[in-house]
Amino acid sequence: MVAESEHAFSILDIHPMNRWHTTVMPKAHYENIFDIPIEVLHEVMSILKYVVNLYNHKLGIDSVQIISSNGKVAQ
After folding, report:
1. What is the pLDDT of residues 14-41, one digit of tens each?
2. What pTM does this model have?
3. Do 10 and 3 meet the contact criterion of CB atoms below 8 Å apart?
């Protein structure tokens, strides 16, 4: 666990594509981003911002790739 809030959390990925590959997600299941209530999406994005700031400050990471795939066509 990297960070956690009431409705969202982030973890280091168990099959990382790179060294600090981190997954940020809501605690509840949603079919896709279109179904996430705005308040929960705000928390997901707040956790994301916290993690990138943490990695920048503690690890010196100054570049990130943020990916969100939603639906079968988007992988």
Report:
1. 999 999 999 999 999 999 999 999 999 9
2. 0.89
3. yes
Q: List b or e across 3-38, with b for residues whose CB sees 16 or more CB atoms inside 10 angstroms.
A: bebebbbbeeeeeeeeeeebebebeeeeeeeeebee
**Which residues are CB-neighbours of 72 under 8 A, at least 6 positions away?**
none
Domains of the chain, with CATH numbers?
3-66 (3.30.428.10)
Q: Tell me which residue has tokens 């960070």.
A: 3
Q: What angle do CA 56, 59, 63 make, to 5 degrees?
A: 45
Polymer length in residues for the chain:
75
